C-alpha cells in the first residue's frame, strides 16, 4: 500500500463527501420520486407525445447508458488508466447521482391517466414500499460489506489498508433469489396506485432495464467467482422466488 500524502488525503476526503452527498442525495430523491409520484419541477410545455419522448428516450436512456456503460468491467479497465482503482466506485457514484438528479429534476408529467387503483384500495399498493425497504435492509445486512458509494474503499486507502478480495456469500434473502436488491427495486417501481402515461412508461422501461442489467451483472459475477457462482446459479432463481423454503439451507 502506497503512502497517502496530505494533498491526496484532502482530495480523497473531498471525494468521500461528494460521493456521499450526491450519490446518497440522489438515492433519497429517487425514493421520494417513486413514492410521491412523478413531479414536474420545470414545465417544458410538451404535449403528451413530446413528454413521453423526452422522459423515455432522453431522460431514462441518459441514466441507463451512463449507469450500464460505467459499471462494465471493460469500461472500468479503460478509465482506471487515469483514475486510481480505489477512487473509481466513488466517481461512479457521483456520475450516477448526477444522472439520476437530472432525470428527476427534468421529468415531465403526462396529462393522460392510464390506470388508477380505486380509492379504498390504493393504500394496499403503497404497502409495497415498506416491504421493499425491509427487503433492501435484509439484503444489505446479508452482504456484510455493502459500499454503493465507494466510501469504504476510500477510507481503507486513507488508513493504508489493502482491499481484500470478496468471496461469494449465500445467506439471508440470497438463499431464495440471487438478486434480492433488484427484486426490491421492481417492487418499489410498481408501488404507486396512479399510472399516468409517463409513469407507466417509466415503470416499463426501468423494469426492462433492471432485468437486462441483472443479466449483464450475472456475466460479470461468473467471471469473478467462476464455478462457485455457476453452482449457485443452478440452485437459486435470479429474481423471482420459486419456493417458500430457501433453496440453500
Summary tags:
two-stranded antiparallel ribbon, 10 helices, globular
Structure in words:
The protein has 249 residues and is mainly α. It has one domain. It contains ten helices and two strands, in the order H-H-H-H-E-H-H-H-H-E-H-H. The protein has helices at 6-36, 48-71, 73-79, 88-106, 122-126, 128-143, 151-158, 180-190, 197-225, 227-235, and strands at 113-116, 194-196. It has a two-stranded antiparallel sheet. Helix 1 runs parallel beside helix 4 (88-106). The two termini are 39 Å apart.
Structural class: mainly alpha
Please indicate the count of domains: 1
Return the string of H and E elements. HHHHEHHHHEHH
The chain-level mean pLDDT equals 87
Strand neighbour order, sheet with most strands: 1-2
The span between the termini is 39 Å
What Rg, in angstroms, do the CA atoms define? 20 Å
Task: Report the total helices.
Answer: 10
Strand count, sense and barrel status of the largest sheet are: 2 strands, antiparallel
In short:
This protein has one domain.
Task: Please outline the helices and strands.
Layout: H1 6-36, H2 48-71, H3 73-79, H4 88-106, E1 113-116, H5 122-126, H6 128-143, H7 151-158, H8 180-190, E2 194-196, H9 197-225, H10 227-235
Antiparallel strand pairs: 1-2
Helix pairs in contact: 1-4, 1-7, 2-4, 2-9, 6-8, 8-9
Amino acid at each position: 500500500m502506497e503512502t497517502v500524502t496530505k494533498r491526496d488525503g484532502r482530495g480523497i476526503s473531498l471525494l468521500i463527501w461528494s460521493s456521499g452527498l450526491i450519490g446518497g442525495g440522489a438515492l433519497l430523491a429517487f425514493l421520494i420520486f417513486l413514492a410521491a409520484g412523478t413531479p414536474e419541477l420545470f414545465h417544458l410545455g410538451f404535449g403528451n407525445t413530446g413528454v413521453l419522448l423526452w422522459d423515455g428516450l432522453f431522460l431514462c436512456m441518459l441514466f441507463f447508458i451512463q449507469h450500464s456503460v460505467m459499471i462494465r468491467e471493460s469500461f472500468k479497465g479503460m478509465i482506471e488508466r487515469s483514475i486510481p482503482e480505489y477512487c473509481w466506485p466513488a466517481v461512479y457514484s457521483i456520475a450516477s447521482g448526477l444522472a439520476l438528479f437530472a432525470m428527476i429534476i427534468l421529468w415531465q408529467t403526462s396529462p393522460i391517466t392510464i390506470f388508477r387503483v380505486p380509492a379504498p384500495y390504493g393504500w394496499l399498493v403503497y404497502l409495497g414500499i415498506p416491504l421493499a425497504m425491509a427487503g433492501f435492509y435484509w439484503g444489505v445486512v446479508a452482504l456484510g460489506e455493502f459500499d454503493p458509494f465507494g466510501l469504504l474503499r476510500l477510507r481503507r486507502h486513507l488508513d493504508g489498508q489493502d482491499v481484500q478480495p470478496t468471496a461469494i456469500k449465500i445467506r439471508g434473502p440470497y438463499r431464495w433469489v440471487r438478486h434480492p436488491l433488484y427484486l426490491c427495486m421492481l417492487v418499489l417501481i410498481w408501488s404507486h396506485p396512479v399510472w399516468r402515461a409517463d409513469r407507466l412508461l417509466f415503470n416499463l422501461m426501468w423494469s426492462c432495464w433492471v432485468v437486462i442489467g441483472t443479466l449483464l451483472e450475472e456475466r460479470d459475477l461468473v467471471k469473478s467467482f467462476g464455478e462457485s457462482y455457476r453452482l449457485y446459479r443452478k440452485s437459486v432463481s435470479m429474481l423471482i422466488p420459486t419456493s417458500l423454503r430457501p433453496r440453500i439451507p
